[in-house]
Write a structure and sequence with these properties.
five-stranded parallel beta sheet; binds magnesium ion; about 30% helix; binds adenosine-5'-diphosphate; alpha/beta; single chain; 11 strands
Length: about 210
């Protein structure tokens, strides 16, 4: 279970976001909707331990990650969190398989790479360079890389942002299917995708305290 309690994040440019308390149950899927700039990516980054809140706690299975050292957070993320970044963070000059195997540098076991690519209909593309793939295919490589380590928690930031609706919907179906039994938190602009998730959270309402201090 992930609990957001009394969290407030302030950036150096003085933008401050106050989050209402939220709970994400283990094994459930959540879709976060909300206007650009309301604080969706910032929330994912705090859960992933990439950003720290100024105030409040981010409890994951009872442990306050906000209070942990950066090293502890990094180790926790590498082991337990699959993060699908908005811009994918793929190395386009490298092949699909090499983009997954690069995780070995962090000590991640990538032995399930082939079966994960298979489940995303991408196994036949495993030796292609990412620069030669379509947007939907790149998105599926990013998903494969995030889930190959079988993380308990999957964070996805606008996984369909650059895709047309039909392809985006297919990607979301695959993502939710493959995330069954895990905690999935996905950000999107598209409320037509809500039906694939257990819970919908309107982040405009959860960050009502946002202000430019
Ligand atoms: N690294 C940063 N430095 C300064 N301000 C930031 C930074 N990241 C985000 N912000 C600000 O925080 C607010 C929330 O950003 P973000 O979480 O990216 O929104 P969303 O993902 O909902 O579009 C915005 O006003 C944004 O400009
Ligand atoms: Mg964002």
């Amino acid at each position: 279970m992930i609990k957001i309690i009394g969290v407030s994040k302030k950036f150096k440019n003085e933008t401050a976001i106050d989050y209402k308390d939220m709970t994400f149950e283990s094994g459930k899927s959540y879709i976060l909707l909300g206007a650009s700039g309301c604080g969706k990516s910032t929330l994912l980054n705090m859960i992933a331990g990439i950003l720290s809140p100024e105030k409040g706690s981010i409890e994951i299975d009872g442990k306050d990650m906000a209070a942990a050292s950066q090293k502890e957070k990094d180790l926790f993320r590498i082991k337990n969190i699959g993060y699908i970044f908005q811009d994918f963070k793929l190395i386009t000059e490298m092949t699909v398989m090499d983009n997954i195997n690069i995780l070995k540098l962090e000590g991640v076991d990538t032995s399930k790479a082939e079966s994960v690519l298979e489940s995303l209909d991408m196994l036949d593309k495993k030796n292609k360079k990412v620069k030669n793939l379509s947007g939907g295919e790149r998105q599926r490589v990013a998903i494969a890389r995030a889930i190959v380590k079988s993380p308990d928690i999957i964070l996805a930031d606008e996984p369909t942002g650059n895709l047309n609706f039909a392809i985006g919907e297919a990607v979301i179906k695959q993502l939710t299917e493959i995330s069954k039994g895990k905690t999935l938190i996905a950000v999107t602009h598209d409320d037509r995708l809500c039906k694939y998730f257990d819970y919908v959270i309107d982040m405009n309402e959860m960050t009502g305290g946002r202000y430019d201090a």
